[in-house]
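Appendix B. One record, verbatim.
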Amino acid sequence: MKILIIEDHKDLATNITDYLKKEDYVCEVASNTQEALEKIELFEYDCILLDLMLPDGNGLEILQQIKKDSPSASVIIVSAKNSLDTKLAGLDDGADDYITKPFSLPELHSRIKAVVRRKTPEANRILSFNEITIDLQSKECRINDKLLNLTKKELNILIYFINNQNRMLSKQAIASHLWGDYTYSIDNVDFVYQHLKNLRKKIIDGGGKDYLQTVYGLGYKWIDK
């Protein structure tokens, strides 16, 4: 799951990022309005943590842009403002939840899981591709009902490919999806190849077909061969 943390307090943003990364979230941080709007325009996020008090703007204005550019993203307002009017304004503008500072990181994590779960109907929690079935809630992958032992990164790569089947995905795009947009500053992302190699082997060894096609010099495609 990919999270955008819009927070100008550096220590708090770091604490949230460190905690959520341990829970296998991909986290990116924006410390001001301009940076937040640029990221929202360029990237897709499952959940956005939005501080209302930013040095160069009002978080509610960002919320309106989120609802326009990324309507499927869940939004949790994270604010020191505890007035009822502020909470109602945020919720009325489309936020999914509101948590007041200070808060515990486990509570924030529970709120994230809750808002994302509410936006994922039961019928959409199962992702299937031929003999491959993934339970997006339990994070279990099966091939012909046989459980496949995948690492978290391998599972996330598989979900990414199935959701983007027949599209050419570059190694850079895969790296950015799994590790965050900071990978755009890394010249060599060949580590992606090893994850793909391991995933392909596990699928074949588990009785599945090899759907991963290498597009030499460009990237990879997931196709129904």
